[in-house]
Amino acid sequence: xxxxxxxxxxxxxxxxxxxxxxxxxxxxxxxxxxxxxxxxxxxxxxxxxxxxxxxxxxxxxxxxxxxxxxxxxxxxxxxxxxxxxxxxxxxxxxxxxxxxxxxxxxxxxxxxxxxxxxxxxxxxxxxxxxxxxxxxxxxxxxxxxxxxxxxxxxxxxxxxx
Length: 161
Hints:
Layout: E1 2-8, H1 27-37, E2 49-52, H2 56-68, E3 77-78, H3 87-95, E4 103-108, H4 112-120, E5 133-138, E6 150-155
Parallel strand pairs: 1-4, 2-3, 2-4
Antiparallel strand pairs: 1-5, 5-6
Helix pairs in contact: 1-2, 3-4
């Protein structure tokens, strides 16, 4: 069995004229990332791999979550390919995970996350919100063969306010 947790980066700031890749989190984004990450300990496995897009807003979100779930920040794997908005590319990256890892947490971007969750999960979600957490379980022993799974948990910041 494989478990995938997808987290959309927290709300980013548009205050400065920066490249999309370089946009940092807004104050609300920082607060929401702390709020959601403080609620997920009972929903994450004991051992897992944590991947993130290297875009500033995704990396900052991953670091906040890592600190709040006691995951070593230096163990986050930043993958250039996760800076994508295409669910087919996201699927390709997830399916490349080594099978000796049963649990994977991925920090990335919309539309890729919402479209992936709707393709592979069992619950239709209009839009995975910023700082949104979605856990999906797959009845397979290989990441390469993941197909329709079961959505086990969805946590959005609005659910906690």
